[in-house]
Amino acid sequence: MLPPARLTPAPLPPGATIGIVGGGQLGRMSAMAAARLGYRAHILTEEADGPAAQVAAGITRGGYEDEAALRAFAAGVDVITFEFENVSAAGLDLLAGLRPVHPSPAILGISQDRIAEKSFLNRHGIATAPWAPVEDRASLDAAIARLGLPAILKTTRLGYDGRGQARVATPEEAHAALARLAPKPLVLEGLVDFACEISVVVARGADGRIASFDPVENRHAHGILDLTFAPARIPEDTAAQATALGRQVAEALDLVGLLAVEMFVDRNGTLRVNEIAPRPHNSGHWTIDACPASQFEMHIRAVAGLPLPIATRHSDAVMKNLIGPADMALWPEILASPGLIPHHYGKAEARPGRKMGHVTRLFPRGSLPGDFGIAGALGCLAPAEGCDRQDERP
Ligand SMILES: Nc1ncnc2c1ncn2[C@@H]1O[C@H](COP(=O)(O)OP(=O)(O)O)[C@@H](O)[C@H]1O
Ligand SMILES: [Mg+2]
């Protein structure tokens, strides 16, 4: 059943300008999707020649907290969205006073802060890892007493790709991690013994209609996403629950835009939400090659007030991230490998741990092979060593 119709603004006409806050690869791929729909993308970025700026119709160069830059940026665009979430509340309010902003500043406020995020989810009856706020030694000890060990101590804000967090197995390790991460506000999370990690990418239009991509399975190496398998190799009812959870989060947030929900699946098939990201997500890159409308197109459509097509995949897919110099050394070989679909983000320097691009391999729908077949299919791109939980399938 469709949700009740709401008064929605007219769709942005072709030729309009979509402002994107942030100049990285997510902005680049969003700008490319915007261009395909006849829009101009205008990027707010500190980097004149970054991944998004290279493909955009225009940029405003400046910091995300620079009031003059924020005003100049807003003046040049019709609507504002993000590929970078960490703009201050003051910056978001300033932008929202000047142009429509999607997703709303309130949603960004929730996703920026792990405690606000988990509180929001739990308030809506959505399970997360058990957690407790940590400010000092006493609250850390209290959190350990309640959650037990091992656990993960995380900064509540500005963490990404596993940065700003520490796994701790003993009170001594926890105290050392506190000394390292303090005085930032922290949260202790109980370690979830998951069978696999999955994510759901959901778009929601201004009219409340939702399009959601199939849940995918994610494998991390060294704290960074390494591989995404689409669809996730989980039982159908678990996949249906994950999709329902993604929709529930989008609705509870009254989202206009696109959102990724990262989840843990435990051995009983129970789902817990790890974190949410109200923007295109690395685990959705496969949709560029395997779906008629990618996550980036869905994002732009939702923000521009266009209808959202069904998010069906025409193929199964495996996406492998290309990280740092080691993976980029394989670029010539990747280009020469039939069946590998290469994506380069235009970053000049391949520093260790830096996301430089990704590669997608498509499989006929319904024929995603098991791990061994994947390794063969990826050829030179066999999964990274240290890939977590390689052998532990649900
Ligand atoms: N509570 C937890 N239990 C088990 N593993 C976790 C937990 N929190 C994080 N992880 C692992 O660390 C990865 C990164 O943590 P996440 O909270 O998603 O931070 P980031 O913002 O860096 O993506 C997760 O994808 C997961 O593999
Ligand atoms: Mg994460």
Helix content: 25-40%
| Whole-number tally of structural domains | 3
Give the tally of β-strands: 17
- What's the architecture of the largest domain in CATH terms? 2-Layer Sandwich
SSE blueprint:
Elements: E1 17-21, H1 25-36, E2 40-45, E3 58-61, H2 67-75, E4 79-82, H3 89-96, H4 105-111, H5 114-123, E5 131-134, H6 137-147, E6 151-155, E7 165-168, H7 171-181, E8 186-190, E9 194-204, E10 210-212, E11 216-221, E12 224-230, H8 236-252, E13 257-266, E14 271-277, H9 287-290, H10 295-304, E15 315-323, H11 324-328, H12 331-335, E16 340-344, E17 355-364, H13 371-378
Parallel strand pairs: 1-2, 1-4, 2-3
Antiparallel strand pairs: 5-8, 6-7, 6-8, 9-10, 9-11, 9-13, 11-12, 12-15, 13-14, 15-17, 16-17
Helix pairs in contact: 1-10, 6-7
What is the structure about, briefly put?
This protein has 394 residues and is α+β, with helices and mostly antiparallel strands. It is 30% helix and 27% strand.
